[in-house]
Amino acid sequence: MADKLHFNLVSPEKELMSADVDQVDIPGTEGWIGVLPNHAPLMTALAAGMVRIRTGNDQSRIFVRGGFAEISPAGLTVLAEQAMPETELDAAKIAKAIRDAEEDVADADTDEKKLAAQQSLDSLKELQAAL
Q1: Residue ranges of the domains in the chain?
Q2: Angstrom distances, CA of residue 106 to CA of 37, 77, 123, 127, 129
Q3: DSSP assignment letter at 87
Q4: Which of 34, 131, 16, 6 is nearest to 83 (CA)?
Q5: What is residue 82's DSSP assignment?
Q6: How far apart are CA 69 and CA 58, in angstroms?
Q7: What is the spatial order of strands in the sheet that 75-80 belongs to?
Q8: Is 110 helix (H, G, I), strand (E, B) or coil?
């Protein structure tokens, strides 16, 4: 198991993944972060987008809407506000997530919260357009 990254992805509903992988790409609020084994420690907020998990020639994707990621010597842990494997995505679920994000933009009481909510909304609209 040399040079593998231990990866956990958890949502409020369940643990979606716990595995040793080669690489994980996460949508940070400041941009994309590619996480490989032995990555420097880091904690970041997540934007809405696809988490891409690579092991050998296999790749899987899980959509997340917000949350946090922690990179430590133990590996990468993603605590997602909402998460859905790519195979479970459908237009109705994405439309609901867009409505929720629009409410978040309207309810934001600071410029920082409004910007984060708008970035999430923009990512969801990009995902909807890609379906």
Answers
A1: 5-85, 89-130
A2: 39, 30, 17, 21, 22
A3: G
A4: 16
A5: S
A6: 22
A7: 15-21, 5-10, 75-80, 67-72, 42-45
A8: coil
Evaluate whether the domain defined by 5-85 bears CATH number 3.30.70.260.
no
Q: What is the pTM of this model?
A: 0.77
Which residues does residue 5 pair with via DSSP β-bridges, in sequence order? 21
pLDDT in tens for each of the 131 residues of the chain? Answer: 469 999 999 999 999 999 999 999 999 988 899 999 999 999 999 988 889 999 999 999 998 888 999 999 999 999 999 898 888 888 888 899 899 999 999 999 999 989 888 888 887 887 787 66
Between CA 41 and CA 39 the distance in angstroms is 6
